[in-house]
## 1
Amino acid sequence: SGYHSCKIRDKDVPIEFEHAALEEHFLKMKEMKAFNDWCREMDEELVVSKVVVQSIDLFGPRIGFIKFKAEAKTKDGKAVPGIVFMRGGAVAMLIVITCKETKKQYSLLTVQPRVPVGRASLYELPAGMLDSSGDFVGVAAKELEEETGLKVQKKDLIDLTEKAFGGSCPGVYPSAGGCDEFLRIFLYRTKMEPEEISGLQDKCTGVLEEGEVIKLKVVPLDDLWKTCPDVKALSALCLYENFLARREIPSD
């Protein structure tokens, strides 16, 4: 074993590994976009003196998840919690479907098992992890097709988070006390015949090779806030309704 380090705001910070077996993944860790972004974008008011890697989960040849403890203080020397579950950003899509016949609006959700919260069937917005390309819109369109079967053009997706926050932050942080994940939330609106909407109900989708077992649920848009205990859905709804109220998005 040798000395390992990373650059955080141009300062050389040592990296230690709790288990020797983790050390072999050091180079993969240095290539991980989420880790590089974290190092590069650290606020200057925070001072990190050491990173201790505790566990790593591989997704094929690359690191998917990494857990580490950063020894961190504020500029005036006060220690702050630094346990990090790193997974990088994700995209989520709020789908608003208007029925051509009745003009009633619906949203399309995914239902799938979520072991971390002990739920066999959790209602959520369609979503997926970002890749290293940084192509938020492209990943959103790809995940939308994989999880719902809907093929969309990039131009048909509205980036609600970018519209709200501009460049001040990459997205919505669902669990900033322990995880770096941010959510880039997109809006996709379309119109369908009643039979098209019915055809989406309980449709099975997902990428089996990635272990996805997904069923679709169509719910009235007015009921989304009380149907779906998903931070992605509630955040998307908040942004969408505020933009509508301010007429910054046409009411369709």
## 2
Amino acid sequence: GGSLTMSISSEMLKNMHAEAEKVWVPELAEVMKVTADPFINVIYDCDPLPKLQWDNVVLVGDAAHPTSPHGLRSTNMSIVDAGTLGQCIGKYGISNLSTALKEYEKYRLPVVSQQVLHSRKLGRLKQGLDYKGHGRNLHWKDASREDCLGLLQRNMPFFAGAPSPADSEALPLMMT
């Protein structure tokens, strides 16, 4: 069908349990064994979007930044999208909506693009896959201190805050 979530076969379950015993701590392997109905949820990864705005149409939230769940930032990114959009519309008004939306894109596109790519990197590292520029597969048993620190959430680009129109012009967040 059209779902990317699927049940697993008994053979897949057997292989998953065997692999879990080799890779994970015993407690996690046991949790996997006692899970009644395990499933596979396919994660589709896409490149950052080339733009967020077309005429009087703008993308916000998950539509604006197709990030994988590895970065744990989707909701936060959406909230910042809404705040930035409100600031831009507040600055230019509805009569200059196109200008406001272009400014929204100017602030948000570079930020969300970097966050999407960082989330991809986290996903590949957490799954033990190679990623461009890394040059090797990362397995938790072989991970260096630097590898582990790279997985911390605080290393997400703009984790502590992203630029906004309020930074340069002290525009209060418009709440309507």
## 3
Amino acid sequence: MSQKISTEVIKELRSKTGAGMMDCKKALEASKGKIDIAIENLRKKGLATAEKKSARLATEGIIHSYIHSGCKIGVIVELNCETDFVARQVEFHDLAKNIAMQLAACQSVNYISLDDIPNDILIFERNIEIAKEDLLNKSKDIQEKIVDARIKKRLKDMSLMDQPFIKIPEISIEDLVKQHISLLGENIVIRRFERFILGEGLKRQSNNFTQEVSKMIYNN
């Protein structure tokens, strides 16, 4: 059983590190309430000070393009930081590349964060889940719990920041960005992205060679 951590201790750790409340709580639970160890663990994860910097304006940065092997998937991503100096750093460019690769690999991702998902998408997904046959014989309360859990998972599948990083699945893309905020000392924001899939939206020809030849002979 995890040790109960008081709100006061969590706030103290947050004040010292700038990390998020949940990150502080987890770090304190892992360290059994020892703040010094919790601070060290947060710094190793790159979470200390990241939250404080995340409120600062980021208007510099780069636009990075990535073409997946085989040239059938392409991604363009805009990654912002605070200064041109950080925008030129190798670590910043590597982060942009890793984010673009993640977007190429995770084609269900259409939004940067959960906050970016429109309410009509939430309603649409909920209506789909409520209508599923496996819920028909369950009570209303159970239905709601199952639907809420499924919706939460579905929305996370759509959110880039909630994806496990493909190179290190133990951390999320949000964690990866926070690590680089701590490393480079500036706020970093994934501003927008666009994914291109070869032939997407085009009506593909379904006729095979035999059908094409037969059609040519018939027409003649």
